Amino acid sequence: MADPASNGWPAGKVFDAATQSFTYDDLVFMPGLPNFESSEVDLSGHVTKNLKLRCPVLGSPSDTVTGPKMAIELALHGAMGIIHANQSVESQVNMVQAVKRFVSGFILEPFVMSPTQTLADLDKLKETRETKGVSSVPITHDGRLGGRLVGIVTARDTDLCEDRSECLCTVMTENIVTAKEPLAFAEAIDILKREKVGKLLILDAQDRLVSMVTRSDLKKVRDYPEMSRDLSGKLLVGAAVPAKEGQPDEARANALAEAGANLLYLFGDGVDAQLELIQRLKVKYPSVELLAGPAASVREAKRLVQAGSDGVVAGTGCDVGGDVEAPKAVALGRGEATMVYEVAFYVTRNFALPVCAAGVRSSAQALVAMGLGASSVILREPLAGATEAPTGGTAAPPLHHPHSLVSATGVRYGSSRAWERQVTVPRSVAMQVPHRSQVPRWGRAWGVGAGENTKECPRVKAFLMYFFSGLQKGFRQIGFRNLQELHVALEKEALRMECRLPYGLQLREACIQAKRNSEFPLVAPAWSSLR
């Protein structure tokens, strides 16, 4: 029982007594009594039951936010991106594979040659698209993976050989550093450091080649110690799969799971087709984590969890991206704070599953969402103007559309009159975002946009440093070292909060918006760009 003399109110009284829903900006937490530094705060949290991130942030599955570059950058800094589904299956699979190839980890299918092959055969192998960047090739007795290892040919062995008809057995290095499986990726990296070699070949108990680890990964681990990796050492990546009524894209889900996606986000309207797809995928790919949503109510979340989802997204369709739809002239949805609290309260207590909060646009809103029970958040607008975004720095007006106008399939309105020309109506305009020539103060503070080239877009690295720093300071100010302590305080009513007056909030937001407009003047999109 919380101290009755404490200021503020526990979450239960705030939401149970309210007749209206609350947004993230309607709530403020009462300060705590911290006795630690903000750098000691641990932000790690679960996205699904078995998937934990050091920085619990997901890139929105929107085609203006998360492509391969964004997914790679997020994973390198401890977060994870969800590749959008507004494209063909082949294109989405290629994006997932590009992310998985960026850090090789355990190369389970290295290119192998036999001792009797020649340098000319090696040159021909390196010219193919699949072997781009390959500089070293293991040599087995039969030229196949799983054969007995006899040597390795590196660029150092072949660069100075003029006779390309020479056999590989005459130039290969036979004194090789190897390791035996089972072996963890961290242990393989330690062996590379200790032996000071560029390649580490992994053998089984019968000395047969099974995999390989390269020094390039050692450099990436050194430069990005917080990167999100799976057990094989590759970057974590998710992919979105539409699960609408009458058109559940099971073929897309199968292809993405086979391509190595660690997480599949199945978005739909909670229809039976979505639930059936979850059940089939859980049986077919038990090692792939399934995140389902969006769920705005407890009833929707219950159906998704009982179908087999490993995590639930608390949000609405416009908060989490998805496929392109026509604008809907209906009043649907719920206040984000109320939605996250109600869904998280039910899911975490009854099923012990994490909840991911959508619609978050700042570190302050992320703190509120996590304080109400969310374990991770989805970011859309804050990432849309970054250099790594698919449309980063290319849009002229500083406005973010949930879907790019080029690929969107909007609704066309037309008339037989010549002066009433057809136009494509975008789904919505969410908010202004940093773009070319408009680097905000946090970007300049972290070295983005400083110097001569001031027309660069902010990079994801700079934004994430700013975002995580603000989140850590918020945790410290309310007196919690990690997400687990925060959720325990929420359950035991030790976390106190209050509601802001609408007038004060509106006045504050008006002042902030006026300041933004003075720094970044809005330019209305020309009608010609919407045709």
UniProtKB/TrEMBL annotation:
Q: Is the keyword Metal-binding assigned to this protein?
A: yes
Which keywords does this chain's UniProt record carry? CBS domain, Metal-binding, Oxidoreductase
Q: Where is the CBS domain?
A: 172-231
Say yes or no: keyword Cell inner membrane present: no
**Pfam families in the record, alphabetically?**
CBS, IMPDH
Known InterPro entries for this protein?
A: Aldolase_TIM (IPR013785), CBS_dom (IPR000644), CBS_dom_sf (IPR046342), IMP_DH (IPR005990), IMP_DH_GMPRt (IPR001093)
Per the record, the similarity remark reads: Belongs to the IMPDH/GMPR family.
In its UniProt entry, what is this protein called?
A: Inosine-5'-monophosphate dehydrogenase (IMP dehydrogenase) (IMPD) (IMPDH)
Q: Which organism is it from?
A: Durusdinium trenchii
